Amino acid sequence: MRYFADIELGKFMGRMEKEGILNDTIVVIVGDHGQAPEAEVTNTHEESVTRVAGAIIAEGRLGNAAGLIIEDAVEQYDILNTLADITGLPEGGFVQNGIGRSLKRKVPFGERVVFSNDPSRKMSIVRGHRRLRYDQVTASMMLHDTENDHAMTRDLFPGLSAEERAEWEYW
To answer: What are phi and psi of 62, to 5 degrees?
Structure first.
């Protein structure tokens, strides 16, 4: 059962290739959470919402972005701008300064800002592997390293310089 989706996706892609439509098709696969817990795997809620797999399959249209693995924070809003870049519409692409940016365009790690709202975890801003949580009730902020502290138990915010705090508070 574990590889059922992989097998079926392979069959689907094979049928599109056989029918001659694969090169005219863009396949987008996204999820809303990561790996489900399994008996032999320790998986926390925080890890499952910060490590979500996705794929864009666009035969011959990705250029240098083919096979690209993005470790930085991304969001579903990025899909529209990415599809626009893949198809060349509009000419020159969308403006890349609002919510949603093309995943084909190289952005330095940690500069991509993602807004996240998990009702059980307050409002959040994610940049790279860092998540800033804001609690409206207490007006408090906590900064966590999601790569090394999935359970978000260590608050990094008090240890930041005044300049670093100001940068995070700006968002």
So the answer is: -95, -15
SS3 50: helix
Closest-CA residue to 121 (of 150, 99, 148): 150
- Helices marked H in 22-161: 45-50, 78-87
Q: Where are the beta strands (DSSP E) in the chain?
A: 27-29, 55-57, 113-117, 123-127, 130-135, 140-145
What are the chain's domains?
Answer: 1-107 (no CATH), 109-171 (3.30.1120)
Q: What is the pLDDT of residues 118-153, one digit of tens each?
A: 666 578 888 888 989 888 788 889 999 988 887 889
Contacts of 169 (CB under 8 A, 6+ apart): 141
